[in-house]
Description:
Elements: E1 6-10, H1 16-22, E2 27-31, H2 39-44, E3 47-50, H3 58-61, E4 69-72, H4 82-87, E5 91-94, H5 100-115, H6 118-126, E6 144-148, H7 152-161, E7 167-171, E8 182-183, H8 188-191, E9 194-197, H9 211-217, E10 223-226, H10 235-244, E11 249-252, E12 274-276, H11 285-305
Parallel strand pairs: 1-2, 1-3, 3-4, 4-5, 6-7, 6-9, 7-8, 9-10, 10-11, 11-12
Helix pairs in contact: 1-11, 5-7
Protein name: Hydroxyacid dehydrogenase
Keywords: NAD, Oxidoreductase
GO molecular function, one term: hydroxypyruvate reductase [NAD(P)H] activity
Amino acid sequence: xxxxxxxxxxxxxxxxxxxxxxxxxxxxxxxxxxxxxxxxxxxxxxxxxxxxxxxxxxxxxxxxxxxxxxxxxxxxxxxxxxxxxxxxxxxxxxxxxxxxxxxxxxxxxxxxxxxxxxxxxxxxxxxxxxxxxxxxxxxxxxxxxxxxxxxxxxxxxxxxxxxxxxxxxxxxxxxxxxxxxxxxxxxxxxxxxxxxxxxxxxxxxxxxxxxxxxxxxxxxxxxxxxxxxxxxxxxxxxxxxxxxxxxxxxxxxxxxxxxxxxxxxxxxxxxxxxxxxxxxxxxxxxxxxxxxxxxxxxxxxxxxxxxxxxx
Length: 311
């Protein structure tokens, strides 16, 4: 008798109960991390379900010799060596659409908070300082907003935030739709009062928002909000700019446990107009339900397509 197919899911990437209901003849196992996976499970698994913050490179892939499908419960592919997976005949499945609205909602919340200097005022009160006079801010409605990245998240951020600001422009690229408002990227640091970074972690984008960007934007002292991947920012340089006035506010969502501590050294200067969250932009009940259903139906579909009995 042929052995039941094995699906392995990293904790937090899928609803294993729902998976088992969709795949009653499939063995489902949950692990806490790829790095600590049982070698016997890895050696047998045909499907792997991942979330952000996990590395699947060529070296680690050798531990998963029977792997045929990687299902990414979300959008980002950082940490996943897609080229090596393709060469090995492993198909990667992802679904970036469901999370976009939730991420845009988070972005609106932090844009409002930074614009009104709420994190700064809160941090000062916790230090026993009353800084009302330092929390005077221009209205959000007078701000110009630059968006870097025109994928589902970037486009949805523009749609959600546009009614609250004076103007919105995407950093221009040849591949952008003609219907999107754009400006050359080298003009945006001197134009925008706030920047939304929704870029993938490509080599081109790594550390893109660092010393050069900050020098070009210093006169504006803008708000900088990262909703893409943390590697697109030189985080320590941005934090120093925030402390010395080069940035008016900084918000980071895609923070994984491996990114800690955020502040270099032992003591962060404060108070700061700074918000950081543990990658919660898409952590909304409706998004989780949609992604869990998509993972289950995708897993059932790919295994059925290979003639594996799952139901």
